[in-house]
Amino acid sequence: MDERIAKHIIPWLSGKKTGPYEVEFRITRTCNLKCFHCPGYDEKLMTSNLLPLKSWLKIIQDCEKMGIKECLVFAEGEPMSSKMALPMMNEIKKLGMRGKTATNGTLFTKESAENLVKISWDQIYISLDAPDAKSHDYVRGKGVFDKVIKNMKIINATKKKFGKQLPEFLFNTVLTNLNYNKLDKIICLAHELNVSTVCFHPLNLWTKEAEKLKINSKQTAIMQKQIPNAIKLCKKYEINNNLNVYLDKGWIEDSRKKKTEVRKNPQKKASSKEEKENPFFRLACYLPWYFISINEDGRVNPCHSIRNNKENIHDKPLQEIWFGKYFKNIRDQLLKNKVPLDCSATCCAMQATEHQEFRELLLKAYNEKDNEK
Ligand code: SF4
Ligand code: SF4
Fold it and tell me: How far away, in angstroms, is 41 Cα from ligand 1 center?
């Protein structure tokens, strides 16, 4: 989580409503892979009401006018499988916003690598299930691991050729029974490929197939023993990570239960005067104060985990949606320490750990602002 986001939402505390800090564009539901546990991609769910490139470019321009700082080119499937991805990325950077994308890493070419390096695209999150072909390909398909590594090397070589630091690579790694004992190898691979951050995620059992990847108690114990060494290795290689979260085994074994516990009782963590007195400092989730997500057909949400979208960019401008009734209602429920109805079934476990950390950043930003007076 980012300190800049904490600073961005502080004005809400004195009644000054700010626009979103980040916008996520979920541009397609198509994907070139067929991972057996995939919860997202489903071409059958594509509607006929898809936003064309022209509309996306207009939305990007509106985002810049609203003061949005970061744009995420994401997908329910694979963003790079859409022909709109690169032109959208180019527009985002042309308008001076930061750009991120999350990808399976298989579809980059020499040309797209050069394009991304030239525009200084900021961050590329690569989904990495394991540090070896056998385990990674078990989930994603034959030859996928080698393809991803080759593409990352192409991008790194292109950065070198043009003397650029960006794009920065990050790994998104879901903890499973394929990688619970390979933390050190994942970190070494990250070091080898110039990856700045490894974000470990708990396994969300969104599909029946994902059960096959569940870590059992014995594996949890093995993994927990490895965490301190893995953290040391990250320190040595200066790789950011969130491994300390998993020192609490609840996040590995039953992240759903753990998430519910954190979401329902955020005040349990409240220790400072401000946290106790002001509900804003102990919210279970802050996304509706800084984040907005737009789907491939124009549906708009406070977060990609919400599936039954109520608002659509076809009906009203983004600004109106952000300051409108639906977002206000979600915020009001969170302020009353209730889990909004739309969030109850699908909230992602990782969000709960991130918002635990975010509360600390928020308090810091608030106190710094106070000291500046
Ligand atoms: S790469 Fe991602 S979207 Fe594509 S099939 Fe795999 S998990 Fe699903
Ligand atoms: S689904 Fe979860 S992360 Fe998303 S807005 Fe609701 S509480 Fe926040």
Answer: 6
* Helix, strand or coil, per DSSP, at residue 239: coil
Element (H, E) at 94: helix 85-94
* Ligand 2, residues at Cβ distance < 6 Å: 285, 287-288, 302-303, 305-306, 340, 343, 347, 351
275 vs 293, more confident: 293
CA dihedral 84, 89, 90, 94 (to 10 degrees): 140
143's tokens: 């030859």
Query: Is 90 exceeded by the pLDDT of residue 220?
Result: yes
Give nearest CA residue, ligand 2 atom 8: 285
Ligand 1 atom with least separation from CA of 76: 3
Q: Is the distance from CB of 27 to CB of 85 less than 8 angstroms? A: yes
Distance CA 97, CA 76 (A): 23
Q: What is the mean pLDDT of the chain?
A: 89
What's this model's pTM, rounded to 2 decimal places? Answer: 0.93
User: 216 Cβ partners below 8 Å, 6+ apart?
Assistant: 177
Starting from the CA of residue 346, give the closest ligand: 2
Measured in Å, residue 223 CA sits from the centre of ligand 2 at 28
Q: Which ligand sits closest to the CA of 341? A: 2
DSSP 242: -
Q: pLDDT tens digit string along 333-369?
A: 888 877 777 776 666 666 667 777 788 888 888 888 7
Query: How many helical (H) and strand (E) elements, i.e. helices and strands, does the chain have?
Result: 15, 10
CA–centroid distance, residue 281 to ligand 2 (Å): 16
Beta strands in the chain (DSSP E): 22-26, 70-74, 98-103, 123-127, 168-174, 195-201, 240-241, 291-294, 299-301, 311-312
Helix axes 183-192, 217-237, angle to 10 degrees: 30
Q: What angle do CA 146, 147, 148 make, to 5 degrees?
A: 90
Tell me which of 117-121, 142-146, 175-179, 201-205 is least confident. Answer: 201-205
